[in-house]
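Hey Z.,

So I finally got round to the NDP thing we talked about over coffee. Here's the setup:
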Amino acid sequence: MTGAWSPTARTRVAAVIGQPVRHSLSPVIHNAGFRALDLDWAYVAFEVEPGAARHALAAAKVLGIDGLNVTMPHKAEVAASVDRLSPVAEALGAVNTVVRDGDELVGENTDGEGFLRSLDEEAFDPAGRRCVVLGAGGAARAVVHALARAGAADVGVVARRPEAAEAAALLGGRVTDESAVADADLVVNATPVGMRGVTGLHREPQLPLDVERLHAGQLVVDLVYDPLVTPLLDAAKQRGAATLDGVGMLLHQAALAFERWTGQEAPLPAMSAALLAELTHRSDP
Ligand code: NDP
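And the result:
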């Protein structure tokens, strides 16, 4: 890694657009990757008002920005505004990565594939397995779609709003209730329940399901990565289940975007080390 890099007139730029975006971990992950490969690229964050994503895309085109990530609340607006969509982004109606192809901006979605890669690292193959996904928002929809495409035998969607659950289930699952967790091989929390600051973690443990349903032989994944050990993962471990935090998905969805933009294999160890250092730093009291 070079310690002497600084941007020049030739530096290529990637960015994330979102609101709020100042907490985003993407600049830390991608800049660590650029530095590790000695690429003359920089990654920054732009706070973009809801409804203004299409203007941000037009600006990206004019300014020659070479890669964009898209986070809340812009994923659907960007899907409606890019020149083309990948099949996955089209199915999800949501874009988390924009790639430049000549004069065109192509909307892609790396969340589901990032999730599958994080499972792969745990040597868990969803093919033929029974899965339950808690939640029906953007992350849940990407996970349901990815699990179905990976050949899961059953993908149950558990969510508090029936219409949202039905819409997510259309991506390759079926609506079910929490009782399905007992028979599942894989349980994925795709709600924010357990996240620091959002659900009052320090006052009482926040759990997205009745943990009595969890048992040995299951893999329990929490997409929440702050804290790294959520109340759900803690309880799952105590009940003998295998556990996986959300860092793997976060890292792999970024690595996939990095590879699409730069054409280079993402330096995962450097990106992972920077991400974990930042998360550790943020969790310091
Ligand atoms: P969304 O807001 O799109 O969806 C959240 C889902 O959780 C909705 O179905 C929502 O239901 C449900 N929900 C929210 N609060 C509760 C609650 N108290 N009880 C039951 N259900 C609830 O968020 P995302 O899908 O974008 O993100 C969900 C979580 O996943 C976040 O914590 C996020 O940080 C994490 N995430 C992690 C990623 C990673 O790479 N590890 C990637 C993306 C997200 P309703 O619609 O009724 O409110």
